[in-house]
């Protein structure tokens, strides 16, 4: 669907275009989702965010001691993906007001008027219940419980409680994204032990430098929406120091599995090399050419580079865990 | 309220196309679910499920 037709059929954000209600005729209602395409329902699941979640969950499942039938393993990963998507749909339902005022999110199906908020909420709740139920059937109740906990944490703790109240929103809320490797691990072992907790901690402490790098160059959007991201509340200079601080803490943490003898040298070397790269990125963000209050004079080029690198960093770090497991 | 009685032919076609897209997606999801539950059942029952009793 083109932007023009989207606005014509669905948009009613202060323009002269007809609203969904005005276009409603026999059998066509704004509440039935007749303006939505299949792609809109897929977009509600935030598929791009899902990629990292699925990958870390898969690695957790892959390196866990024990055996899980490949079909049940696939089902467990599918459940993690569906649960992440469902939580994303509920997040879009709750955040539809701020999504509408942010450039990055204004074209999402709910603020664009193509999917009714209530439908998105029902979709998210249904998929959440499905994911948890199937996870319990395919693997065990520990994995299903952690999966349910991660959905509830993302929806109630991050989305509804923290996101609009504190600049520490993504620090604590980052826990939601750190659950997948634990779920994958629990699906195989039926429990949660040291390695699972370390994987959780790595993703948890990776999240702040990752997200704050993004928020450094997207802070205008967050400010417009009234979301208290760190650069909006404490300023860019403070955010740069925080990115550096968390990265300094993260790098030795990623070496812990190797230092504790839980992984081999392959992972240790990868973690050290990748960590050095992340530290360099964080240092460049800290030393970016900036004005008195820390606003970048280089269009936040180092922050953009750090954001991209952080994604690659986590992918390769977790891939190294798997490689080490099989050849280390 | 000034509600139009009908929508234009173009809009009607566009709505029909999107509705068909959603229906095909739903069909794909349902077929995939049937396959998934079948495969899960076989996996849970074990490899000897089709073997002699």
Please provide a written account of the structure.
- The complex is a heterodimer of chains A (328) and B (53).
- By secondary structure, chain A is an all-alpha fold.
- Chain A folds into two domains: 41-189, Tetracycline Repressor, domain 2; 193-328.
- Helix content of chain A is 72%, strand content 0%.
- In chain A, 49% of the residues are buried.
- Mean pLDDT of chain A is 88; it is low at 1-33.
- Chain B is rod-shaped.
- By secondary structure, chain B is mainly alpha-helical.
- Chain B contains one helix and no strands.
- Chain B has one helix at residues 9-45.
- In chain B, 70% of the residues lie in helices and 0% in strands.
- At the A-B interface, α3, α5 and α7 of A face α1 of B.
How much beta of chain B, percentage-wise?
under 5%
Task: Summarize the amount of helix of chain A as a percent range.
Answer: over 70%
What order do the helices and strands of chain B follow?
H
Could you list the spans of chain B in which at least 5 consecutive residues all have pLDDT below 50? Answer: none
The termini of chain A sit apart by 49 Å
Q: Enumerate how many helices of chain B there are, as a single number.
A: 1
Helix-and-strand structural type of chain A: mainly alpha
């Amino acid at each position: 669907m083109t932007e023009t037709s989207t606005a014509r059929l669905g948009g009613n954000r202060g323009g002269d275009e007809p609203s969904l209600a005005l276009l409603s005729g026999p059998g066509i209602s704004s509440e039935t989702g007749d303006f939505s395409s299949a792609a809109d329902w897929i977009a509600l699941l935030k598929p791009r965010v899902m990629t990292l979640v699925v990958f870390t969950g898969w690695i957790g499942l892959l390196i866990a001691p024990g055996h899980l039938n490949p079909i049940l393993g696939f089902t467990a990963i599918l459940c993690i993906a569906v649960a992440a998507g469902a939580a994303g749909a509920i997040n879009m339902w709750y955040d539809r007001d701020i999504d509408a005022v942010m450039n990055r999110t204004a074209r999402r199906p709910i603020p664009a008027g193509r999917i009714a908020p209530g439908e998105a909420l029902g979709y998210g709740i249904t998929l959440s219940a499905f994911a948890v139920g199937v996870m319990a059937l395919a693997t065990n109740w520990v994995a299903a419980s952690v999966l349910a906990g991660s959905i509830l944490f993302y929806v109630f703790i991050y989305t509804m409680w923290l996101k609009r109240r504190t600049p520490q929103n993504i620090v604590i809320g980052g826990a939601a994204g750190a659950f997948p490797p634990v779920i994958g691990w629990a699906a195989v072992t039926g429990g949660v032990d040291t390695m699972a907790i370390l994987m959780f901690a790595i993703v948890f402490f990776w999240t702040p430098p990752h997200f704050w790098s993004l928020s450094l160059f997207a802070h205008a959007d967050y400010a417009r929406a009234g979301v208290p991201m760190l650069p909006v509340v404490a300023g860019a200079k403070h955010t740069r120091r925080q990115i550096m601080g968390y990265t300094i803490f993260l790098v030795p943490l990623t070496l812990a599995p190797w230092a504790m003898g839980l992984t081999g040298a392959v992972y240790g070397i990868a973690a050290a090399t990748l960590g050095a790269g992340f530290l360099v990125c964080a240092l460049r963000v800290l030393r970016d050419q900036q004005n008195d209050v820390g606003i970048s004079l280089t269009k936040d080029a180092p922050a953009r580079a750090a954001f991209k690198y952080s994604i690659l960093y986590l992918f390769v770090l977790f891939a190294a865990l798997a490689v080490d497991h099989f050849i280390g | 309220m000034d509600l139009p009685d009908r929508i234009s032919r173009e809009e009607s076609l566009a709505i029909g196309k999107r509705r068909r897209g959603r229906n095909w997606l739903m069909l794909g999801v349902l077929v995939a679910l049937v396959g998934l539950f079948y495969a899960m059942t076989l996996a849970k029952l074990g490899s000897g499920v089709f073997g002699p009793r």
